[in-house]
Design brief:
The structure is a single chain. The chain is an alpha/beta fold. The protein has two domains: about 5-75, no CATH class; about 80-170 and about 180-260, Rossmann fold, CATH 3.40.50.450. It is about 40% helix and about 15% strand. The protein is built from eleven helices and nine strands. A nine-stranded mixed sheet has the order 1-2-6-5-4-3-7-8-9, sandwiched between helices. The protein starts with a helix and ends with a helix.
Length: about 260
């Protein structure tokens, strides 16, 4: 007889991690034969964390649509570590954005070694932030919008591999072999928002994936720090968020002060 944990993983694989379909299968008590369940489970080569596991983080249980199953490689204990900071921004970053990201994360590392940088491994600010964290010896959590066995983008292969070590965590709710399609990423962003303590937005346009994560973080009651931009910049999101009450981030000390509560 299959355990409840095995049933969750089976439905996750059968329905490609789609939260609503997994929930409906559980509600109607969809029948799963032991043979079908074991066949699917035998194909999972990575580690898994389910909603009913004792080490499933409380912060994710309180988030919007907490994932039923998470697939991972690396150090799962980082999920419950203190001082997890999400760092996000435009995929087409400016020179200013790159400089500021390196200055802030490098400055944090000089003063505080206990930070974990959480991002999505995407081109632009995400990968700049994670590479800077790696260079400075900070932990990282990389959250994917694809299966754990898919490195996307390929240019972030170095981050992908580092995330599998004791200093990192590679995390996704999508079963192996799932490709990185556009609809996966807004759902991925809710996991990032759920596990972080504070969100740092470096630069982004008002209509962007970054704005979706910002909205989710506001709904999760997370503090948001934003790097100001000049008023002629196309990257207007941070200025708009500061006007609406986000904290203006001008130095590493601003981040350290915000994170000292965690």
């Amino acid at each position: 007889m299959l355990t409840m944990r095995e049933v969750l993983i089976y439905f996750s694989v059968k329905y490609n991690g789609e939260w609503e379909k997994i929930k409906n299968a559980l509600v109607v008590k969809e029948i799963v034969t032991e043979a079908d369940g074991k066949e699917v489970l035998a194909k999972i080569q990575c580690k898994t964390l389910t909603f009913i596991d004792s080490n499933y983080p409380e912060c994710l249980k309180q988030a919007y649509r907490p994932p039923f199953v998470l697939y991972y490689e690396g150090n799962i204990e980082l999920l419950t570590a203190r001082k997890k900071m999400g760092v996000i921004g435009s995929r087409k970053n400016s020179t200013y954005g790159e400089e500021v990201t390196n200055t802030l994360i490098g400055g944090i590392a000089e003063k505080e070694r206990g930070f974990t940088v959480v991002s999505g491994m995407a081109n632009g600010i995400d990968s700049i932030a994670e590479r800077c964290a790696i260079k400075n010896g900070l932990n990282i959590i990389s959250i994917l919008g694809c299966g754990i066995d898919v490195c996307y983008p390929v240019s972030s292969k170095d981050i992908y591999e580092y995330s599998k070590t004791d200093k990192g965590l590679l995390l996704t709710e999508l079963p192996p072999k799932n490709k990185p399609i556009g609809s996966n990423f807004p759902m991925r962003n809710r996991i990032l928002s759920g596990i972080i303590d504070t969100l740092l937005i470096v630069e982004a346009k008002q209509r962007s994936g970054t704005s979706i994560t910002a909205r989710l973080s506001l709904e999760d009651n997370k503090d948001i720090l934003c790097v100001p931009r000049d008023i002629t910049s196309p990257y207007k999101l941070t200025n708009c968020l500061i006007r609406e009450g986000a904290v203006s981030c001008l130095s590493p000390e601003d981040i350290i002060e915000a994170m000292d509560r965690f």
